[in-house]
Amino acid sequence: MVGTSLGYYQVVEKLGAGGMGEVYRARDPRLGRDVAIKVLPEAFARDAERVARFEREARVLASLNHPGIATIYGFEEAEGTRFLVMELVEGQTLRGPVELEEALGIAKQICDSAPAR
Q1: What pTM was estimated for this model as a whole?
Q2: Are 41 and 21 in contact (CB under 8 A)?
Q3: How many CB atoms neighbour CB 69 within 10 A?
Q4: Which of 80, 99, 109, 105 lies closest to 6 in space, CA to CA?
Q5: Number of domains in the chain
Q6: What is the CATH number of the domain that holds 18?
Q7: pLDDT, tens digit, 9 for 90 and up, residues 12-62
Q8: 11-15, 41-45, 74-78, 101-105: lowest mean pLDDT where?
Q9: pLDDT at 88 over 90
Q10: Distance in angstroms (rounded) separating the CA atoms of residues 79 and 107
């Protein structure tokens, strides 16, 4: 996928992979910025349940606004490939499971920085 285009996004490099897809750095030439693109694998695109789950992920991300969560810019499809377009957040890549204590610390930071309702 590196070196190709998805819609008008130019895929630059693979950043990682997980249970629901692969994530790439891509260039948005219209706005002159780099974005993260999460691609639903072709095998999952034929599974209605996986597609629905991917769409739910997009809606949930769109409903959230928090400095600790990447902003979603769009949920798109190009040439049969479904993908999320998100804010590219520079930083370290997680390498495997996070220990419970560390995960709780991260969750506490997110909760502490959330605006009061």
Answers
A1: 0.77
A2: yes
A3: 14
A4: 80
A5: 1
A6: 3.30.200.20
A7: 999 988 777 899 999 999 999 999 999 988 888 888 898 899 899 889 888
A8: 41-45
A9: yes
A10: 38
The residue range of the domain holding 12 is 5-113
Block residue for tokens 């600790």:
68
Residues 6 or more apart in contact with residue 102 via CB below 8 angstroms: none
Element holding 55 (H helix, E strand): helix 48-63
Band the pLDDT of 114: cuts 50, 70, 90.
low
Of 70, 59, 58, 66, residue with least CA distance to 20: 58
With b for 16 or more beta-carbon neighbours within 10 A and e for fewer, the 10-22 pattern comes to bbeeeeeeeeebb
CA-nearest of 94, 96, 72 to 85 is 72
CA–CA separation, 100 and 82 (whole Å): 33
